[in-house]
Amino acid sequence: MKRRSVLLGGAAMGASLTLGARAALAQDGPLKIGFIYVGPIGDGGWTFQHDQGRLAMMEALGDKVETVYQESVPEGADSERVMTQMVLEGAKLIFTTSFGYMDPTVNVAAKFPDVKFEHATGYKTADNLATYDARFYEGRAVIGTIAGRMTKSNKIGYIGSFPIPEVIQGINSSFLHAKKVNPAVEMSVVWAYTWFDPAKEADAAKALIEQGVDVILQHTDSTAPHAEAQKTPGVFTFGQASDMAAYAPSPRIASIIDNWSPYYIKRAQAVLDGTWTTGRSWGGMKEGEVVIGTITEAVPAEVKAEAEAMIAAITAGTYHPFTGPINKQDGSVWLAEGVVATDEELSGLNFYVEGLTGEIPS
Amino acid sequence: MFGGIDPSVLIASLMVASVPILLAAIGELVVEKAGVLNLGVEGMMIIGAVVGFIVAVETGNPLLGFLGGLLGGAALALIFALLTQVLLANQVATGLALTLFGLGLSSLLGQGYVGIKPPFTGSVPFGPLTDIPVLGTILFDHDWVVYLSIGMIAAVWAVLTHTRLGLVLRAVGESAEAAHALGYKVTRIRILAILFGGGMAGLGGAYISLVRVPQWTDGITSGAGWIALAIVVFASWRPWRVLIGAYLFGGITVLQLNLQAAGARIPVEYLSMSPYLITILVLVIMSAGRGRASLAAPAALGQNFHASR
Known about the structure:
The complex is a heterodimer. Chain A is of the alpha/beta class. In chain A, 51% of the residues are buried. Chain A has helices spanning 2-26, 46-61, 77-88, 102-111, 136-150, 165-181, 198-210, 224-230, 261-273, 301-316, 343-347; strands at residues 31-36, 65-70, 93-96, 116-120, 129-134, 155-160, 186-191, 215-218, 236-241, 252-258, 280-283, 290-292, 326-327, 333-335. Chain B is 70% helix and 0% strand. In chain B, helix 1 crosses helix 6 (144-162), helix 2 (41-59) runs antiparallel to helix 3 (62-86) and helix 2 packs across helix 10 (224-234).
């Protein structure tokens, strides 16, 4: 046992020596930055936006950086191999852009202490591993408000991806704000257990429409729910991650756009300057990371004005979507009058708020 | 209404949801009946999806789109046929390579077609028949491909069991040597079967990109081809069981989403698991009965044939 660990240590040392030599060589060239994508760039949603961020970064930093990326990397052990490969090719900063890459990123980061890692939407950090996320729930509050105003059947649907805090924040935030403007509203949540599966997302949208839902919010990344909604007049949808403007002005009546460009530029610049430190970034509307896309003419002017007022309040920092009084699903008090949820509470959110039916799958 | 779900609407949507896997599976059934194992169904489907989409968008005619999808799938199958029937490459490896190639090529071909809407494929006008309660929704409110897919099952069944052509095809799949000795062109028959399988898979793929989703995105088939392969085994190579299998798999997907939307209290995990549990159960029952023969796998499945042997 002991002998084996000595051997392993030796191997690791050998590896780091080789890497050290490579690193020294690479110093002269541009900073090589790797991106691990969960879907294809052509998904028109989540991965597309990360790639837009990458392109914006290349634009801003010019020949000081060069990038490599890998699309459709499965979340799990495979991703470790892809990351390792990128490091061996000389990448000094690697963005892993999906929640499921959390543990693989932690493992690879531990092996290569001189490479910087950035993991999107996770909660594990290390000296060379930072996390970044966007306050999507701020955007959800705005589209929840629009959804509550636009529904005629008083049934809105939510296509969930995986039951993780980010998605539960989204469900709670949109439901709270729909309920605020329309007390009769009900929300059906369908878990698709995928980030990107156009056929399944279309089926989920269809199932919701068959249940009488006329406004669909989605937390999955393809435009398939829009295409499905288009078949039934009077059903509205919201773009997710990307603008999805191809389906405007209806069914797509607004969208939540993830804008990663400011963050990617900032972090790459920090590595170039040698000022990069680990941390947890959670930018929102104020930082320009969450943007609401064009609200189309299908939305009445007063509803649009209401949504824009909320955008302004959130951007200015005068309104937080999770401000009490808010009760948990079982009726117990979560946030008392005027109390604002802390980031810690939100990043571990695992319960529905009062009024939502159904259970969160474990 | 049953637990907030309208059964006729549910049945109607499971019929639509099952069309791609149904078409791909019936095509693969014919291929395997001829003794060829083509694991490239996923690749042929996605090529059908992208080619069908491109043709439909460029011509504005969904019918031509479906034809394009069919030809696209068949063209990819032709590569498989050349490699395995002429050059005698290993069928399993070639099939897997075909899937990878198809996924990559479709992504390349589809580059300029992301975010575009294809022309609309409407329901077949049945006039007043559509308004019959329950039956109208289930039977008379679909696009033509739904009817075609069921027709294909019936046609394949009829050909396999009631015609000389079917007999020859099965002979080739059971014992290529014997069929060859009788003077049948084994390689030619197998190539034609492979082309049919590719065409059906391509048609199924085109249905995904033109009707079911309707749009093009990379990886749009997301594993439907593999389900089709499983259905062929599940169906123990019998056409009508392919229909049952496809509706079961398609139905469970639709049912579990509908149950969720209706707020049913059944855990999602059990429903997602059920088609696979049923597959295992069926396989166990069938193989326990009368041995391998009752599985009805063609005896020469996956074995290459050359007249010199």
